[in-house]
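Researcher: For the annotation table, I need structure tokens for G6PDH family F420-dependent oxidoreductase. Please keep the output clean. Sequence:
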Amino acid sequence: MKLGFKLIAEAYGPLEIVDQAVRAEAAGFDFVEVSDHFHPWVGEHEHSGFAFSMLAAIAAKTSEIGLATGVTCPFIRYHPAVVAQAAATTAILSGGRFTLGLGSGERLNEHVVGAGWPAVTTRHEMLREAIEIIRLLWSGGYHSYDGKHLKLEDARMFDLPGVLPEIAVAAGGPAAARIAGELGDALFVTEPKDDLIAAYRESGGLGPAYAEVPLAWAPSEDEAAESARRLFRFGVTGWKVQAELPNPVNFDAATTLVTAGHMREQFGCGPDVARHVEVARQFTDAGYDRLALINAGPDMDGFFDFFAKELAPELRQAD
């Protein structure tokens, strides 16, 4: 099992995100993954830096920790050729430490280019084509591609890393998990669902399974739960909501009735290491072996100290 840290680029500015990655390496995390958004989720979020710029800066300021996008939608806002180039360059700059997380996106980020928001079945078709284009470009030489949704014309990648990045495909349901098994190198989820990893394995997926673990550290449970409500209440809406709303104001409206009590049900809140381990074990028991820990609490330095001294030893012992 490897332990990672979720860099919440909607809640913190680009310089702070880079600094958190440096602190995560010092605290003993194995990898960091950063969200790739154009818009933040809710009104309390005031940031949304460009993921690949932050990853380049992190690569320059760290030496061992793994890097990943969590996750990038490789169509609509981006063309997959651009994602292929960005990922290859990030892999080179990081000395092979980069994993490309891909998913079928959210309206929140993709509608900004005015190209519409397709139904989920169409987005899954587009994701398949995007992965095929990325791998085609990574194979070297000039290539063209004429898909149902996406096209590539006479393109070549000139800077490729010695070892290509792994592709982790995000799944909120079995259909996307099957895409991960068929076309990806790893699975990426946000819920401890064993049916997702089952679909991934049944579709030929042999690689690691990434999961985001919802935690909020603070000196008191009440303080942690309220911070989680402010910063992460969108997360309790589920992907049928998260994928469809266009702007932070819509998520504010959709989460008006979310309370700190709701956050306690899903998040490990407060200073009790046993509660945090309990939440993490939901994912390990379901078969996930790459845990990206979220800290939705108000004190990042306190969380890093808590992780290094108390949480990491317990989680690694349980491996």
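Researcher: And a one-line annotation?
Model: The longest strand covers residues 209-216.
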